[in-house]
Design goal:
With 216 residues, the protein is of the alpha/beta class. The protein has helices at 9-15, 30-34, 50-58, 71-84, 99-102, 132-141, 155-167, 193-200; strands at residues 40-44, 63-68, 89-93, 108-114, 142-152, 170-176, 206-212.
């Protein structure tokens, strides 16, 4: 759900040292942004940043980039980062379709998609972040051993995503329709704001992990 517009949010974001504003100019050079050659993990549609910032605390040897298109939502994540000042996290305000313009081949090791917009109308299927069109974009930036992790409480979207993994020519590494009751996949699970909300209402959380099929 989109937050209401917050007056001045774009101006605050523009001045923030935690936001990369010239993201296309650092394509292939993200190691220079972070000052190291650690792996890069990205979350597309990161919301208020709870999930990504928890990971950044747990794994200081991994660089995290949160991508969010709504200024009012990104602002909330920036407020948290202002308090935490984690050195291994950056943010970008952009649309996900431009990923190949921002990251070079093999530059990203993992992509997180959490409670993405379901775009329920059939004519909007290509806009879903787990559509074959988006998997083609991920294929351009992920390292050979990279993977995509997707969580949602929307069963229709999840079933669509399972099919799209196959249609995109990827492999399903793991999947579950009830993450919180899956002892293997639930191990080490970090919850998002939406995950906490929906699971508290008794909604099962679905998760899949997809990997690229490598040439034999």
């Amino acid at each position: 759900m989109r937050l209401r517009n917050i007056k001045g949010s774009r101006e605050i974001i523009q001045k923030s040292p935690y936001v990369v504003h010239d993201e296309t100019s650092v394509k292939g050079k993200w190691h220079e942004v972070f000052g190291n050659r650690n792996q890069i993990h990205i979350e597309i549609g990161m919301g208020k940043g709870q999930f990504l910032m928890a990971l950044a605390k747990q794994h200081p040897d991994i660089n995290y980039i949160g991508i969010e298109k709504y200024s009012s939502v990104l602002l909330r994540a920036l407020e948290k980062q202002q308090e935490e000042q984690l050195p291994n996290i950056k943010f970008i305000r952009m649309e996900a379709e431009y990923l190949p313009d921002v990251f070079a081949k093999d530059e990203v090791a993992r992509i997180y998609l959490n409670f993405s917009d379901p775009w329920p109308k059939d004519r909007h299927a290509k806009r879903r972040l787990t559509s074959r069109e988006f998997f083609a974009r991920y294929d351009q930036i992920l390292s050979p051993e990279g993977r995509v992790e997707f969580k949602t409480d929307n069963r229709v979207l999840f079933e669509f995503s399972l099919e799209e993994v196959k249609e995109a020519g990827w492999s399903l590494q793991a999947s579950t329709f009830d993450l919180h009751h899956d002892p293997v996949l639930a191990e080490g699970n970090v919850m998002t704001e939406y995950e906490e909300k929906f699971s508290s209402l008794g909604n099962p959380i679905h998760k899949l992990t997809a990997v690229r099929k490598l040439p034999v």
